[in-house]
Amino acid sequence: MRLAWALLALLLLPLPGVLGQASGNFVFYADPVAVSARGVLLYSSAPFVLGVYSSGKLVNTFMVPAGQSRVSLPPGNYQLRATSNGITRSAEVQVVADPKPIYVAIVWHDHQAPNFYPNGTFFSNYAFYHVCSDELQPYYRYGVYAFKAQALLNNPGINVSEEVSPPLLLQWEIATSKGYEYQGSYYPPNGTCAKEVRWVMDTFLNLSREGRDEWLTSFYAHPISGYILSRYGWFNLMKEDLIMGENITDSFTDVTQKGAWLPEMAFTMKDVDLLNESGIRFTVLSYGEYLGAEAAPGYKKSSPFQPYVVEDPSTGKTTVAFFRDSAISNYIAFQNNDATAQQAAQSAEAVVRMIYNATNGTSGVVTIALDGENWILDSRYPYNSALFLNDFYALLDEEEAEGVMDTVTLQQALEKVPATQVLYYVPTGSWVDMSFAKWTTQAQSVQLPMWDELNAAHSAYKAAQLLGANFSTLRKAQIGLFHASDSDYYWAEYVDPGPVSVWCKYVEGLLQPVLGKENITVSAYSGGLKVRVANGLDREVNLSVIVGGTFRPANGTAPFNYTVTLAPYSSIALAFRGSPGSNATVLLAASRYPFRSVSLTQPSYSFILIYAVVVIGLVTLIAVYSLRRRKALKSDSTYT
User: Fold this and answer.
1) What stretches of 380-527 adopt beta strand conformation (E)?
2) Selection from 139, 128, 140 nearest residue 182 by Cα
3) Residue range 269-289: average pLDDT?
4) Bridge pairing between strands 318-323 and 67-71
5) Using an 8 Å Cβ cutoff, are 156 and 210 in contact?
6) Which residues pair with 215 in a beta bridge?
7) Closest Cα partner for 259 from 105, 71, 377, 38?
8) Strands (DSSP E) along 342-479, which ranges?
9) pTM for the complete prediction?
10) C-beta separation of 223 from 256 below 8 A
11) DSSP codes, 506-526
12) Other C-beta atoms within 10 Å of 373: how many?
C-alpha cells in the first residue's frame, strides 16, 4: 500500500518524489518503526547502497535491489543513508524487539456550531462549504469532510472514533431533506452540494456499521459544560442538551453509541453524573486533567496510556475516561505547516515515532484526540496537511501489518485494555491550559456581557418554569438556551455576540407572556418599599420574594426571603421599611429572575418636607421675635 501511494503521489505532484526523500527518478523510504525479527521494511525506485549508522558511526553496509525489501537489524535507533547514482537520501528508523502492539486510538471531533437563527435562516454555511468546496486543491477537488471520508476508504485497515457532532449532522440533514437559505439564496435538497453531503453522511454511516469509524455523540450545541456546571450549576439544562444531541446522533445511525465528546474537554466532577445519567459509558479528557487526577483508595494512577474509571464519590456514579496525549495531538493540530509533500511525509513518519516513544515501546493505549477539520483548514498549506493524513494512515496500516501498532476505536480499546483503576477526583478545567479563560476573560469586554445576557435568559427560563409555562414553550426556550451557550461564539479570537444575543432575546420573547401574567409591582415610598405579588395564572403558584439591600420587614433584617402560596388570580401586598440611600431587588428565589428593582438613592421627600417646615418655622419665629423686640425698644426710647 505504501509503494502504491508513493507512485500515485509521484503522478500527482509537480515535483518528482513524495515519500521519504527523492530526487530525479530515485525514491527512497524506510519504515520508521520496525520489529527486529521481521526486519526494516524499505522501498526504493532504483538499486542502492545502504549505509547503516548508529550514533553517527557506520555499523553496516548493504546492497539493496529496487522495489520492496527488508534489512535485518538488532533493536536500536539507526540513521539510514541510501545512495543511488550519486544521490544520497536518509531516514531514521527505530528497531524494536517483538512487542505487544501499541493501541492507537484516534479520535476526531468534526464540528460546526448550529449556525442558524430562530427563523431557520443560516448565517454561516461552513457545514456545507467544507464538504463541497475545492479547499484542498491541487490534490483534491472536494472539502475536508469529504476528504476525511475518502481517506478512510483508501486505508481499509484503519479504525478511528469520530464525533460527527449533532449540530453538524442536523445541518447536513436540513440541506439534504428540505434545503436551506443562506445570504438570500436558496439551496435545494437535490442540488450538487446536497448530493455530496449525502454521500459523506452515507460513507460515515457505512464505516460505522463496519466497526471502522465509531461514532461518538455529544451535546446538541457544544457548551463548555465543565464551566457552566461549576459556575452556574445548570445541571438539568446541560443534561437536556446532551440528551438532545444523543437523540440526533441515534436518528442517523442504527449503531448504538456508547461514547461522548465533551466540548473543549471542559470538565468538572459533575460531568461524571451528567454522562452517567445520560447513558454515556466513556469520554476523552486532557492530559492536564490526568496530571491533577487522584486515585481512589486502594487504586493507583500509573500511566495516561490506559483508560480509568472516574467515580464521583458523592453519588457513586461513574464513567470511563481516556486521556489525550497532548504532545502528539498538538503536533498534528498546530505544527502541520509542511510546505511540501515530502515534508508532510516526513511529519507522518515523525508522528509514528512519537507514538512508539510515548509508551517507551510497551503496550498501552495512545489517545490522539483533536478537531477533525480545523487542523487541516488552519494550516498554511491545507493540501499538504491532507497528504499528511493519507500518509499517516498508510504508515499506521503498515505498522499494524508489522505487529507494532494497532489502530482501535475507543470501544475496541476498552476491550483490549479494560479500565481497572479508579479515580475519585479529576480537576476542573479544559484542554487549554486547564482553564476556561479562552471563553470567559481573554476577551472579557465582549465575553462577560455575553455570559450576563445568557444568565439573564436562563433566569427567565427558570422563572417561567416555576410559573407553570407549558411544555412546548419551555422546550423552545431550552433549545434557544442551547444555541446561546454554544462555546464557538465565546472563543476569544472569534468571539461573536450576535448569535448569542439573538437567541437570548428569542428565549425572553417566548417567555414574556408567562412572566407578564405574574404582574409583580414594586414601588418606593418615604422610608420604605411596597411589593404587590399577583398570580395571573389559573393554577396555584408557590413563590419566594427576596428583598435585599437595607430594606427590612418589621421583625427582621435584610436580605429577607418571604415565601407565599397564591391561589389562582389572587394577590398579596407586602411592605418593608428602608432608610435613605437604601436599595432592593425583588426576585423569584427559585430562578433568581429579577422581575423588578427599586432604589431609594435620595433622602425621602417627606423627610425633606418636614426638615424644610421646621427650618422655615424657626426662621419665622426668630424674625417675629426680632421684629417685636425692635418695636419694644423703639417704644421705650419714645417714652424716655
Assistant:
1) 405-407, 422-425, 521-525
2) 128
3) 97
4) unpaired
5) no
6) 162
7) 105
8) 365-371, 405-407, 422-425
9) 0.80
10) no
11) HHHHHHHHHHHHH--EEEEET
12) 23
- Please state, in angstroms and rounded to a whole number, the distance separating the CA atoms of residues 354 and 288: 19
How far apart, in whole angstroms, are the C-alpha atoms of residue 94 and residue 98?
A: 12
Measure the CA–CA gap between 328 and 408, rounded to whole angstroms. Answer: 17
Half-sphere exposure of 587 (CA within 13 A, CB side): 19
Q: pLDDT at position 11, please?
A: 31
Q: What are 328-353's pLDDT values in tens digits?
A: 999 999 999 999 999 999 999 999 99
Ramachandran assignment for 538, one of left (phi > 0), alpha (psi -120 to 50 degrees), beta (any other)? alpha
Cell of 374: 480545523
Q: How far is CA 153 from the centre of its chain?
A: 28
pLDDT for the residue 466: 75
Match 518503526 to its residue by C-alpha cell: 33
Strands 405-407 and 318-323 turn out to be: unpaired
Q: Are 539 and 468 in contact (CB under 8 A)?
A: yes
Long-range contacts of 46-50 (CB under 8 A, 24+ apart): 46/84, 46/85, 47/84, 48/82, 48/83, 48/84, 49/82, 49/83, 49/84, 50/80, 50/81, 50/82
- Please count the other Cβ atoms lying within 10 Å of the Cβ belonging to residue 449: 13
The secondary structure of residue 335, as a DSSP letter, is S
- Which DSSP string do the residues of 124-168 spell out, in sequence order? --HHHHHHHS-TTTTT-SS-HHHHHHHHHHH-TT--EEEEE-HHH
Residue 605 zone, left/alpha/beta (φ > 0; ψ -120 to 50; rest): alpha
**Where on the phi/psi map is residue 479: left (φ > 0), alpha (ψ -120 to 50), or beta?**
alpha
Return the C-alpha cell found at 493: 479570537
Buried b (16+ CB within 10 A) or exposed e, 454-472: bebbbbbbbbbbbbebeee
Measured between its terminal Cα atoms, the distance across the chain in Å is 139
All three cell numbers of 118: 430562530
Torsion of CA 515, 521, 524, 528, to 10 degrees: -100
| Dist. CA 490–CA 121, nearest whole Å | 21
Residue 174: half-sphere exposure toward Cβ, Cα within 13 Å: 21
| Per-residue pLDDT reduced to its tens digit, 604-624 | 333 333 333 333 333 444 444
